[in-house]
Amino acid sequence: MKRNIVIAAVTAAALIGGGTATALATTGDDEGSARQAATTRPAGDDARDDQDDADDRDDDAGRAASTGISAPEAIAAALKHTSGTAVSAELDDEDDGGKVVWKVDVLSGDSTWHSVSVDPSNGKVLGAQGDDEDDAAQVRAALKGSSVTAEEAARALAGKGVVTSVDLDEDGKGKSWEAETHKSGGAGQDWKVDLKTGKVTADRADAQDDDDADDDQD
């Protein structure tokens, strides 16, 4: 009944105005379906995201194969140049120019951030620049009472493959070092290293994401 009323009203308005109109009538169930269609993420988007993640891993594998300086060595070189606490280290394409460098983030004693670039072929420090970050207090709080440094966390993963990144996870209750390794052939794996004990565990969330990506490809 309501459907007929709506159509009649729209048609009348069109005739009065001397123009044409298109009537769209929906029931309560139709509205629910419309909302669901608007908020449901297309499956193709998820597949593209999974492919992007796979491409990123392939890039990391290529970088790992080309480096002669390990993550612990890069961190040590950065700290020798800029004193402080290393909070992260990552093999990075500098300015997307294709040149791969180690980027080591160092928090100095005066709570100033420094990004130190280290040549992955010989360990030479290429330069350092200050970063405007306001999370120094949060990082220091996360590291309070910890006994495992970023360098030690990277060394703990030596048997898992080539470490391409190590970073402090200061969010939530399970604070830890997060790291990524790559083995020959490009296989990548994310890990967590306990800040106090140095215990290494596989990142289960990452493993689940990989399983989901494999299922999508199948």
UniProtKB/TrEMBL annotation:
<keyword id="KW-0732">Signal</keyword>
<feature type="compositionally biased region" description="Basic and acidic residues">
    <location>
        <begin position="171"/>
        <end position="183"/>
    </location>
</feature>
<feature type="domain" description="PepSY">
    <location>
        <begin position="149"/>
        <end position="203"/>
    </location>
</feature>
<feature type="compositionally biased region" description="Acidic residues">
    <location>
        <begin position="47"/>
        <end position="59"/>
    </location>
</feature>
<dbReference type="InterPro" id="IPR025711">
    <property type="entry name" value="PepSY"/>
</dbReference>
<feature type="signal peptide">
    <location>
        <begin position="1"/>
        <end position="25"/>
    </location>
</feature>
<protein>
    <submittedName>
        <fullName>PepSY domain-containing protein</fullName>
    </submittedName>
</protein>
<feature type="region of interest" description="Disordered">
    <location>
        <begin position="22"/>
        <end position="76"/>
    </location>
</feature>
<feature type="region of interest" description="Disordered">
    <location>
        <begin position="167"/>
        <end position="218"/>
    </location>
</feature>
<dbReference type="Pfam" id="PF03413">
    <property type="entry name" value="PepSY"/>
</dbReference>
<feature type="compositionally biased region" description="Acidic residues">
    <location>
        <begin position="208"/>
        <end position="218"/>
    </location>
</feature>
<feature type="compositionally biased region" description="Basic and acidic residues">
    <location>
        <begin position="191"/>
        <end position="207"/>
    </location>
</feature>
<feature type="domain" description="PepSY">
    <location>
        <begin position="69"/>
        <end position="127"/>
    </location>
</feature>
